[in-house]
Amino acid sequence: xxxxxxxxxxxxxxxxxxxxxxxxxxxxxxxxxxxxxxxxxxxxxxxxxxxxxxxxxxxxxxxxxxxxxxxxxxxxxxxxxxxxxxxxxxxxxxxxxxxxxxxxxxxxxxxxxxxx
Length: 116
Hints:
- By secondary structure, this protein is of the alpha+beta class.
- 27% of the residues lie in helices and 25% in strands.
- It has a four-stranded antiparallel sheet.
- It is globular, with a radius of gyration of 14 Å.
- It starts with a helix and ends with a strand.
């Protein structure tokens, strides 16, 4: 399936790719290769879009919906954490009034560095 066809199956973006990864600690994790995905409450990017962080380019490889209750430690490692519990603690510290509900859906954006 072509990139355009994949994106047509997704709802419209709710934000721009420039806002996908903004926290300095997360930017550093992405650049170091320790963070290869970001979960957001909205869709920030299309497959094939390029994110630029500190002059390095990262391409969005996959975008899909996931429930918080489906997260595994492997997913947490994509986010730059060792465990789901560590990821959960970090997210709730960034968003203190946000509930962590197993059925809550988030958008997963997986990306990889573009070799130039």
